[in-house]
Amino acid sequence: MNTGHADTHLDLEDLIAEAAGQPIGDRAREHLGSCEQCQLEANRWNLVAGGVRGLAAAAPETAQPVRPRRTGQRVLAGPWRRAMVVAGSAAAALVLLVGLGAVTGYVHISRNSTQTSLTAVTGCTRLDQAEGTLEQVNGTSLVIKTASGQPVTVTTTASTFVNMSGPLLSDITDGLTVDVRGSTSNGTIAAAIITVGQPFSAVNPARFVPVQGTVSDASPAGFTLVTSTGTRVPVTTSGDTLVIVLHASLGQLPAGAAIFAVGQAGPDGTLSARAVTAIRQLPTGGRIFVSSRSCSPSSIAAAIALGG
Amino acid sequence: MNDPHGDAGAATFTATDDGGCDDAALLGRISRGDEDAMAAFYREHGRVVLAQVLLVTGERVLAEEIVQDTMLAVWRGADSFRGESSVRSWVIAIARRQTRDRLRGRRLRVVDDTFLAEQPSSGPGPEVTALDRAELAEVRNAIRELAPAHREALGLVFGSGLSLPEVAGVLEIPVGTVKSRLSAARTALSRVLTEKGQNR
User: Fold this and answer.
1) Interface predicted TM-score (ipTM)
2) What is the DSSP letter of A134?
3) Which residue from B minimizes the CA distance to A202?
4) Beta pairing partners, A194
5) Single pTM value for the model
6) Which residue among A229, A245, A261 closes a domain?
7) Inter-residue contact B10 to A127 (CB < 8 Å)
8) How far is B131 from chain A (nearest CA, A)?
């Protein structure tokens, strides 16, 4: 998109950025939504990217504990042995990837579900996490019940990132700006993921094309996506469609949803949340596993939004 | 993160959006011999470095040894990080040098990027359509058969998540060459898929 015109085909940089889940310009995205040739190219690069990610995912979670080297001269000392053992133990506790499951990051925000209340976030000093089901919302606070039955109060502020996801088709209403990803056929998108709001740099499943626009004619079976150029794209939805509401209000969070919050623990055992995610209909026995590139608020928010 | 003795986590939410200061702070602590910081650094970068090295070498034991060497180099040389690149690309560049050193002596067959870049790329040829028909599992297997330089470039972009300029920095080549190498990698991948399809 060197010229910036919406009718110019995407250049290699845009295509690679798109496949890599990095942001591309609005015009490029708009063009991608309406250009079959660019969609094919994007799909090819997405397939390549998916292959690489598949190989990366197949790599060991961590290196094995250090063994003596052939030379016998450079056996790693304390910190490395320790790091690898710690990381290996943490990996063993992970059970399930929720959502897209393809977020590749390195700060693992997860824990064993038998813990009682707040626990430290691995890799982020002074950050804690809480996990449970939503009991009630009191103003700007949430009360969640942990797996052990213990209530935990999670407080929020205006800067707290709150998002929710699940089969939330009823939250797709006319006038919303959404990003739709899914397979295309005869000009219709079968939506796999609908993100309400501007997605973070996205994990884009192979063969899926993201299209942004405004919802019109919403019904239980789908809606019409109106792009910024006025193009009307039919979108079909189903019970398998994952809806991600990037910026939700506390009042929107469905009762009984699985809640995962990251923030700072107060002396009274409450959690002052930096980010909260609510997942409706978390599969039985499911776990929330989040990997963030760093401990920064934006990284945590992007990771906690399930790759949206 | 102005306080070099400050707690890395405490400052994370007042930092800028790039998140890079956390890594830089970790390196600062590592340079002062903080083993916990080293462990955190490993947790943050170890797996992606391992995946990248494994993609290039194709040998798990060797890849793990290279990662250990890389992390040892970080432990010893954390204070050499100047902040001129992201920590991620910095550590991957170290891993790349370690890989090169370990593979030195092995003759690596590298596709000539210049030659491949000059090949016609407009319009879907039979190799492109092979990619259109391919399944993800087939692509994964085909990637394993690419030349190391191609696996490396693809891994840096799609596995390690580096931007094209960052990849250029790691590979010490111009961005334009990164693009041509990626195009060449995809062309080679399509050829592998075509050959496999013909052999079925």
Assistant:
1) 0.74
2) E
3) B161
4) A180, A243
5) 0.47
6) A245
7) no
8) 7
